[in-house]
User: Fold this.
Amino acid sequence: MFRMLVLLLLSAIAMPAIADNGSAPGSPSTSGQPKVAFAIIRTAELSVTEALVYSGGSFTRKVSNNFSAFLVKHGTDTLLFDAGLGSKVADQYRQDMPWWQSLFFKYENPVDPVIDQLLRAGMEPVQTIILSHSHWDHASGISDFPNATVLVHPAELSVIRRPTAGVGGSWPSQVSAQSIKWKSLAFEPVSYKGFANSRDLYGDGTVVLVPLLGHTPGSIGMFISVDSGAQYFLVGDAVWNAKALKLGSPKFWAARWLVDGDIEQTQDAVDQIRALAGRHPDIVVVPAHDGPVQTSLGYFPAWVE
Ligand SMILES: [Zn+2]
Assistant:
């Protein structure tokens, strides 16, 4: 109870600071609308044996694995962090998932692509997509946003330009189209919460990207400070599961071998996230696939604000 009171007090203190940082003088009022918020758009889910998710997990317990995208709202701007499974995922999967990997890496229907969910909610297609990395289950939905600019870490462009099939690659069926407007994200040597480099997307400290290299050469994470003052850290696939993060457990050995481009560097990224979680227990770490963490926050059209 005491801890709860302290948290309430802290968030009450933090709130005006966020509001002050967020509203530029003379900017139009957005009362009633969240200024900075995000929504989790779950495009599909799959029940997976816990032991296949992280080393030391149970062979009898199942965990819910989400295929999610994150809709980020900043004032009148919206963007996607990851694109989830898109409307063409069946064809992409048939083309680029080798049969032996399809025994372990699946998705299940129904798939509810981001574009369909946005249109149902009366929203416009987004014009900006930022990828935590370019693996199949994060990049599939790009093709549903033909007008969007897709931003990635500079190092991720190197794998995108040499696409390969399989779970550890960036799929030709998803990233090869000449029409995709790729853009490299510049990171600055400005430290942020223990990360040496960062990119403050709107210049007000509310949405900050940091490199989490290893899982792929250009994996990144996103910090978001929402209107309430609460802060979230979207960590992509650096770690699949909050429980594994708490234990410091790496992914299941075979999964690690197949999907983590650089296993040691991935572990360094996990250690950095763990250290951050130790220093800032108030920051909620949200792995891209962790069903229980995401369910506790709620799904689009609900906002985390
Ligand atoms: Zn991945």
In short: Residues 133, 135, 215, 237, 259 surround zinc ion (CB under 6 Å).
